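Homework help board

Subject: predicted structure for assignment chain

Our instructor gave us this sequence and asked us to write out the predicted structure in token form, then describe one feature. I got the tokens but I'm not sure how to describe them. Can anyone check?
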Amino acid sequence: MTMMILFLTCANQTEAEAIVNDLLERRLIACARQLPVASRFWWQGALERVDEVLVMMESVEAKFDQIEQAVRRLHSYETFVLTAVAVSKTTTGVSRWLQQSLD
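My token output:
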């Protein structure tokens, strides 16, 4: 079981809450943290600046495809940014909690 931290930007708090609640209820993620962020990026040839909500989630690599499908169904962006970073080490307690939370 490879733990991963996922990052997802959402248009607003309402969207972030809907996605997080769906993923938690379906036990695809064990935890989520939400932070307001100011994002700057290129989109369709123009430099953009928008206020978004960054969601950081804890899960396992085996659930990424299911998470992506759920986000695609609920997210308002045509091209959303969902990335995952594998966790190389964590405490034994976190590993147990993660496994129990996602079963």
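Reply (TA_rk): Your tokens look well-formed. For the description, you could write something like this. The mean pLDDT is 96. That's the kind of observation they're looking for.
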